[in-house]
Design brief:
2 copies of one chain form a homodimer. Chain A is α+β, with helices and mostly antiparallel strands and 311 residues long. The first copy, chain A, is built from 9 helices and 12 strands.
């Protein structure tokens, strides 16, 4: 197949069709209609071979995750995803690879009613760049800069499992069960949680580079500090001490970390319970800047922390 | 500098600030406000090393062109560009490379009041993916599918010079003057022309893969054919017979090709003259499908034609 035939067969025909897409794949640009009273949220993320996934990664997982990380960014703003574009550079036009990639990509896209509206298919080293566009009611976006002293800090789900899976694949930890590997390969973007908390949360971020690094962005942009109780971190399967380290530092969990005023606690917990979403209050925002990691008995946590740096 | 410092210093601080950008670079997503009565046009294009530019290409030109090709796609819809995201994979964090890349990128972005609203900077083989978003009044987008039998076919500017520059750089043609190389390295997207023709044109496309390939998309999607008079093609510096071949087949010109009803001829030509934009009527749309290439004396053109295929 030619480039055009590949795009038509695998990409244009597999996407669902939203009524707000006036013109999808196949022209110089897509044409889109915006609902009244909404702002747009726009994000983009690249997954590159040997940086974000190994050569052994399944194309299904690469397709799934390339979209998931972008939907996770929209969720962290409280936005509802609508449209995506997809730019792939690929060493060769391997149809079975593309077929499986699309399976993963569209499984997730269809789950959230997201339409693929355009893209580019280029010859080159394997890398995938997705841009996602979502809606959010005017002035309702949850920023990193809105945290206030006294806010409670929450995280969804469990932390550190994607990091453990990565260590295991790198031979630095024992083999892990399939559900832990799934946390790394097919993270579930917290789309419905983002929507649920956008009237409650003061600040939010998704945990892609590790809790301390990502919470650090909230603290920096909000000009506040935080106390985190490390023995409150939701670890699920993980052994305790190493688990705390992973939960604080490992990336790729794609859970949400957010802050709420204390008087919204009951409302928040009712909403997340209704979504069957596990949540944990892990600490509080402080006026004093800096990140204070401690146990509930008051003892300081002394482990090394730091997030992933590309350069 | 770290990834975050690089983004802040070179990208966030160099972008202009539009009043419709509620939140730009630095959060999980940008937040944007849409003017009433407008639809969005969204496009994305990747430039990859050794496919779209050689290792010897200047970072200034790569920055400029990675944006230009996307603005050209918006122009082909008649859209006014507003916002862009930029995903770069880069083998190393070479600050002088990034500095020069940004010079080229922001020179063009600022010319058209385009704001960089987000992006991603990743370690990996050199490739740049830009996504551009523009506005177009509701139902005014110029589609590939709107050409009608009897329409006149126009192109802006001159054709084939970017192709000649490429042949020259590949050692397949004699050295060419700097202004011809500029056609390849720093194409001027026809933004103002796209805006000017959106009330007149029935169909439009930008010439990125060669006139016959790109006009072919209009013909296919409009279910029509065309007669093109090859000795009418605007060749500028090019030698005649080889020039026709290049004008028909070479990519990278980023001129617009569009069709108008005959009764709009005077209006069109007045508008393009006011923009100091060279234009040429090169043929007509026919009910009979297929592309009929001939000289004005009626003789058929027999050269090989075909556009660039990535796979």
């Amino acid at each position: 197949m030619t480039e055009f035939e590949l795009i038509k067969h695998y990409f244009a025909q597999q996407s669902l069709h939203r009524p707000d897409v006036m013109l999808g794949i196949g022209d110089d640009a897509a044409i889109l209609s915006i609902p009244a009273g909404m702002e747009l949220a726009v994000t983009t993320d690249t997954l590159a071979l040997d940086v974000h996934f190994p050569a052994s990664a399944s194309p299904y997982d690469i397709g799934y995750k390339s979209l998931a990380v972008n939907l996770s960014d929209l969720a962290a703003m409280g936005a509802t995803p609508a449209w995506v574009t997809l730019a792939i550079t690929l060493p060769q036009a391997d149809e079975s690879w593309i077929h499986s990639f699309c399976d993963g990509f569209f499984t997730l896209a269809n789950r959230y009613q997201v339409q693929l509206i355009g893209g580019d298919l280029t010859h080159g080293p394997l890398a995938i760049t997705v841009q996602a566009i979502g809606f959010i009611p005017t002035r309702k976006a949850i920023l990193r800069s809105g945290a206030k002293a006294g806010d409670l800090i929450y995280v969804t789900g469990t932390l550190g499992e994607a990091g453990l899976a990565l260590l295991s694949l790198q031979g630095k930890a024992s083999p892990v069960p399939e559900d832990i590997l799934t946390r790394l390969h097919r993270p579930e973007p917290r789309v419905t949680v983002g929507e649920a908390i956008r009237d409650i949360a003061h600040a939010a971020i998704d945990i892609s580079d590790g809790l301390t690094a990502d919470l650090g962005h909230i603290l920096e942009q909000s000009h506040v500090g935080a106390i985190i109780y490390v023995d409150q971190l939701p670890l699920s399967h993980l052994p305790h001490e190493g688990g705390i380290h992973l939960a604080l530092t490992a990336g790729d969990d794609y859970e949400l970390c957010f802050t709420i005023p204390t008087d919204k606690r009951a409302e928040l917990e009712a909403k997340l319970t209704a979504l069957s979403c596990r949540y944990t209050c892990i600490g509080t925002i402080t006026e004093q800047t800096g990140l204070d990691l401690r146990y509930q008995n008051g003892k300081k946590y002394h482990g090394q922390i730091g997030g992933y740096q590309h350069f």
